[in-house]
Design goal:
Blueprint: H1 5-10, H2 13-23, E1 26-37, E2 44-53, E3 56-59, H3 68-83
Antiparallel strand pairs: 1-2, 2-3
């Protein structure tokens, strides 16, 4: 389990995993939903994570705010696929 995004950035594992996954047709990204949460004057949309593995898309059900938790989970998933290679 990932503790913070900073640890993945410091040892380059997150970027290495992301690069490998993108080269091999695996893309992981946030998809904004219509549902909003309060943040500032206008609010922001909640997101789910979608994995596109060579054209086969799977969308998660967990809702994320547009914060570091979302980035952490995306990097965790990239590292997961990278470690399975």
């Amino acid at each position: 389990m990932i503790k913070t995004t900073k640890s993945y950035i410091e040892n380059d594992l997150g970027f290495k995993a992301m690069s490998w996954c993108n080269y091999n047709g695996i893309k992981i990204y946030a998809v904004p939903l219509e549902k909003k949460y309060k943040d500032g004057k206008y609010g922001k949309n909640l997101c789910v994570i979608e994995i596109d593995q060579q054209g086969i898309k799977k969308r998660g059900t967990q809702l994320y705010k547009q914060e570091m938790q979302l980035t952490d989970k995306i990097l965790e998933l990239y590292v997961h696929f990278f470690n399975r290679r």
